[in-house]
Amino acid sequence: xxxxxxxxxxxxxxxxxxxxxxxxxxxxxxxxxxxxxxxxxxxxxxxxxxxxxxxxxxxxxxxxxxxxxxxxxxxxxxxxxxxxxxxxxxxxxxxxxxxxxxxxxxxxxxxxxxxxxxxxxxxxxxxxxxxxxxxxxxxxxxxxxxxxxxxxxxxxxxxxxxxxxxxxxxxxxxxxxxxxxxxxxxxxxxxxxxxxxxxxxxxxxxxxxxxxxxxxxxxxxxxxxxxxxxxxxxxxxxxxxxxxxxxxxxxxxxxxxxxxxxxxxxxxxxxxxxxxxxxxxxxxxxxxxxxxxxxxxxxxxxxxxxxxxxxxxxxxxxxxxxxxxxxxxxxxxxxxxxxxxxxxxxxxxxxxxxxxxxxxxxxxxxxxxxxxxxxxxxxxxxxxxxxxxxxxxxxxxxxx
Length: 400
Hints:
Blueprint: H1 63-66, H2 71-75, H3 136-156, H4 158-180, H5 189-206, H6 208-227, H7 234-259, H8 265-290, E1 294-296, E2 300-304, H9 305-326, H10 331-359, H11 375-395
Antiparallel strand pairs: 1-2
């Protein structure tokens, strides 16, 4: 009996009607082996092979790989002519390669790059740069070395101090000429250095008037030298040369004027350098500890008014004591000397920072580790030298 149509029709379904056509026979599938033809599922082979019987070599394309020491295991399957029936049998078998043993390490020595952090061995800490952006230990070491290079010849053989000043001026002029080339200016270096050394010598032997004469000779000699290169860029190169001549040898010549005083020239140089060092140290300490209000953010972002106050205070206190002990100057005049020298030193530092920012350089050179170039150390000293010379000429007049 046929089932009823779920949609309400009482007629039998198509496969229950007597006049329905017979279904078409299902075509045989192309099976690869007649033993497993789907039409012969009811057939069973006469005898099943033993599960542990040896499989023929032909049905095992990689059987020769398992046999260690056989020739076929070494050259693949090229010895059998009928390997074309098994395409993968023509490939070289993949063999497991044992990893290379690690080199032996001595028990007391660690190889580079193999240290690992653990509970008993914390990770290596990277050095944290100081807030001043410098390598502080290297800066201190170089500063002590420069101080010894100045003080030793100053007190033991003053003529050697003249050589030190001339060498410092020559190196500073080279750094300045190298830096201003970034702006397109090319001041002639040979007449600049020759005129700078001449300026220092004239100041040492002949006094302030000869210092001004040396500046005039340096600028004129540079102008004549530059005329030989043609008119192109003449004004630009001569302006850069005049700036270098005034900034380095003329201001540096006041160190020769201070040291040339026969009675106490070494002490005058010493108190001037001590005031500059106290100003830098006090400014650094106060700026790192209390610096919050930028002094000139567009020129030197790291300078603060708190640091400037520390510079003036340290220089005033130290200079009051030093001038009283060494030059017999009243402490209040010594404090005034320290304030003036500290202000000039900070002004010189800001002036060079403005020049470097305009040229797009961080340091004048990398000659001194932790400091940059020599001009990065001379910037504050160069402005402090004429200030100290004028004040000491008033406080401690030179006896003729």
